[in-house]
Amino acid sequence: MSKFVQIRGDEVVAISPCAQNPEHWPDIVEVEDDDPRFVAFLTKTQAILAGLPMSAAGQTSIETNDQSADQQP
Predict the structure, then answer these.
(1) Where are the domains of the chain?
(2) What is the 3-state secondary structure (H, E, C) of the chain?
C-alpha cells in the first residue's frame, strides 16, 4: 500500500494523508510501505514516542520494540 510523504533531501520529514497539488507541495511524493526512507521515519518516530535516545533509533525496529503495553502501570 502506498503512502504520501514529504521528502527533504534524502529523508522523510512528514506523512501526508493524501496526494497534494505538486504546484504547492512539490516535495510530497508517493512511496511504498517498504521504502527505506519511510521505514527509517517510522523507526525514528517510534523511538521518540517510546522515549528511547535517538542513538538507539537505528537499532530499533518498529516490529520488535512495541513494549508500551507491557510497561503500563
Answers:
(1) 1-16+32-65
(2) CEEEEEEECCEEEEEECCCCCCCCCCCEEEEECCCHHHHHHHHHHHHHHHCCCHHHHCCCCCCCCCCCCCCCC
